[in-house]
Amino acid sequence: xxxxxxxxxxxxxxxxxxxxxxxxxxxxxxxxxxxxxxxxxxxxxxxxxxxxxxxxxxxxxxxxxxxxxxxxxxxxxxxxxxxxxxxxxxxxxxxxxxxxxxxxxxxxxxxxxxxxxxxxxxxxxxxxxxxxxxxxxxxxxxxxxxxxxxxxxxxxxxxxxxxxxxxxxxxxxxxxxxxxxxxxxxxxxxxxxxxxxxxxxxxxxxxxxxxxxx
Length: 214
Hints:
By secondary structure, the protein is an alpha/beta fold. It folds into two domains: 5-16 and 86-213, Rossmann fold (3-Layer(aba) Sandwich); 18-80, Orthogonal Bundle (DNA polymerase, domain 1), CATH 1.10.150. Helix content is 42%, strand content 16%. The strands form two sheets. A six-stranded parallel sheet has the order 5-4-1-6-7-8, sandwiched between helices. The chain has a two-stranded antiparallel ribbon with strand order 2-3. Helix 5 links the parallel strand 4 and strand 5.
């Protein structure tokens, strides 16, 4: 079936955001007198939402501490969300071509507010019909399929005509649960070997490879 809808993860798929995210986490950790993390450590902590990221970085489940860490993170990230974050090579040109063929959506486990800010801040918004981030009061985070199902319902497109594209096992698992085709990208934050365990329908090493695949 032709693909009428392509749903993209954000961090590690469309943009390399590890540096701004790590800087924001480390700002919070320094404020709390906790050890900082390296840029190399950051990718392995992504994919399950901000609460998981801060909980792991702080090595604590204490609600008051994590609430304070969240305040410090938001304060810094609000001013630096596209300071070092950039689209991956080929993203702008490829999105331009794909948007002529299909409807496009972003679906991230990053909060809705920051998902929208990053997309707009990098001038990617014109390519997308839906920009959707985390909204726990409305639907669970990936790997739950509810967010994907919500986008399909909003655009009136069936699962057989949809593909989920991402760099995380959560993206592939959510896509499979929603009954859509899946594509893992190997240039992001997860090793190819880990992604293969989820048996995605397709795997690509460069974003531009989507043009030949679709």
